[in-house]
Amino acid sequence: MINEAERRYRQSEKGKRTHALAHKRYREKKKGNYYGHYQTTPAPRLPRICRPLKSRFDEKWTPEPFSGCWLWTRSWNRLGYGQFTTKERPQLAHRMAWTLYRGEIPAGLSVLHHCDTPACVNPDHLFIGNHQDNSDDAYRKGRLVICERATGCKLTAEQVKAIKDDDRRYRVIAENYGISMGHVSEIKRRLTWKHIP
Ligand SMILES: [Zn+2]
Question: How close is the Cα of 164 to the center of ligand 1, in Å?
Answer without folding.
Answer: 42
